[in-house]
Automatic annotation (TrEMBL):
GO terms for molecular function: ATP binding; D-glucose binding; fructokinase activity; glucokinase activity. This is Phosphotransferase. Residues 45-244 form the Hexokinase N-terminal domain. The keyword Kinase applies. The lineage of its organism: Eukaryota, Viridiplantae, Streptophyta, Embryophyta, Tracheophyta. It comes from the Eukaryota. It comes from Buddleja alternifolia. GO terms for cellular component: cytosol; mitochondrion. GO terms for biological process: glucose metabolic process; glycolytic process; intracellular glucose homeostasis.
Amino acid sequence: MKEGMGKVAVGAAVIGAAAVVGVAALVVRQRMKSSGRWARAVAIVKEFEEKCGTHEVKLKQVADAMTVEMHAGLASEGGSKLKMLISYVDNLPTGDEEGVFYALDLGGTNFRVLRVQLGGKTGGIVHQEFAEASIPPALMCGSSDDLFDYIAEKLAAFVDEEEQRFHQPADRQRELGFTFSFPVMQTSINTGTIIRWTKGFSIDDAVGQDVVSELTKALKRKGVEMRVAALVNDTIGTLAGGRYTNNDVAVAVILGTGTNAAYIERAQAIPKWHGPLPKSGEMVINMEWGNFRSSHLPLTEYDIALDAESLNPSEQIFEKITSGMYLGEILRRVLVRMAEEASFFGDDVPPKLKIPFVLRTPDMSAIHHDSSSDLRVVGAKLKDILEISNTSLKTRKVVIELCNIVATRGARLAAAGILGVLKKMGRDTPREGGGKTVIAMDGGLYEHYSEYRECLEKTLSELLGEETASSIVVEHSNDGSGIGAALLAASHSLYLDEKL
Ligand code: ADP
Ligand code: MG
């Protein structure tokens, strides 16, 4: 019995020892598994970083490709992915503009209506007020009439609130500058047909229609008496608005939901322009650079999948790697792969992470800018948006690293694009007489994503070199686009001869 008990006791001790060994093995295996997962996650980040590489040589190739495409787009219709559209703006604001004008700015998720009173030579902008509304998502892919009716209705409400002192003199219609920031083939300052939609809009029955007559018809339906005096986009508006306050403005760049650029070209350098030579000898060109594409662009599997699943596959490739609509979505796609292949957020892939566009660029920039010691903004964003709780500091750091990779690539490529434009203008070397070239910049991405903005400005300086960089000024033109459209409406007013 004793023996037996002893045996039993020995047996139990052996079992106990085996259990200890077993638990230890499990812990080790678990650790190995998690370090294997971590190594896999790090490998995915590293690979992504390499594929997003934008060293200087590559950026200069991108800039050169941009310059080449600009030439090709100016040479003939359809000569390049860059449409290089003629804006029919051959005179930028002089400061003489006078009277009350309206502007309507449509080109992303929000649209704005503005009322501006211009005071002529010495008065400047005497008064401005605006109203803003968002475009309901259903209208972004609905019918042309529905979209334009909605806009006209908001404009009608805004006009209704017009104070007496802003009323037009008798027999004079209100006039409007329409900032419509999608590709449009213009045939005059206030006519042009929609080429295609971008930035998440897709309204088939509007393609090929005249934008101004679509708007004018909708205004009639809503009982608004108004003449559309100028049709521009945000880049042209920003160039005009920037020029009003600074005579050295020669380029405008938008980095918002989408991206685009415009610049002043010599009319004689536009072979496809068959109209009379403008008196100024100049013409503002709307590049539609969002559609730029080159073999030098660093594209990853995530970009290719994003493009394939977008509303406009194989279009707007430059836009899809640089602009606000897409940066957060690229980040999300990398995180999905890390969750799937490296269990980055635990054994399961968080369901919310699988929703396209759930991670928006403003959230990405909040994550990127988190400077708290425990990265609590990152933790809160992951929890609130993706329902991923209890993330470790290590995990949060990796997420920030990914933001940095995505934003850096976008900002550096945008800088390369600007270098390409400056090259085309012959302004990539110091100018005789020390003249400055001012680039008017606008858009929510540029305005609010400071890591992006600072990286862009630093990269542009590096690419230009110290001496040239001192002659290139990047200026934030805060809502220059709306004011610019009003200014262009004024300079293309029917009543120019009847000065108030
Ligand atoms: P739009 O380009 O639609 O005319 P905006 O110029 O206001 O309008 O830009 C809005 C875009 O800017 C948003 O879609 C978003 O991508 C980006 N954005 C806005 N706020 C931020 C932010 N805080 N950080 C990063 N990007 C932002
Ligand atoms: Mg805008």
